[in-house]
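Can anyone check this?
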Amino acid sequence: MKRLRILTFLVCLIPFVALVSKVVQNDLGPDPAKELALLTGEWAIRFLLLALAMTPLRQLSGRVEFAQRRRMIGLFALFYASVHFLVWVVFLLGLQWSAIFEEVVERPYITVGFSSFVILVALGATSPRAMVRRLGKNWRRLHRLVYAAGVLAVVHLVWIVRTDLSQALFYGAILGALLGWRVFSARSRARGTA
């Protein structure tokens, strides 16, 4: 069990190591800041979708290991979203902290992305077991917002890329399938208890 947890942690770090390697080797193309922002944002979405996929994978396979990895993978989604936010603040805003509020208010695509980030921060802050116990049933209600974070993240990406929407639509299709599975699963449980 502990080995699997360590392995999951190391695998989740691979994209970050690859990104750092690209920065060190100056291999981010003609606009490094924009490319780094795009890559970190995409990894945040990928890990968010992977975290959401853990429950259906557990239900389909009967393997509890999937559910046990969900929290760590979700926290890595927050990690990559935080790196994405820092890249935006440091490299694209030039550490002008006063500009953050202005950007969030005036640019809808940033409003949407920032809203997704705030949700992920709230979910990350309430992920420890002590918070699960403290919040009780409210914890489950709060953590359903992860789907809203996913929708907002995909909309944010669609708004940013504009021209080539294939990847954003691919993520959106996966998110739609995961949302569909959740609805189907909830209805099946409701019929079973009726």
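Reply from J.R.: I decoded it. The chain is about 85% helix and 0% strand.
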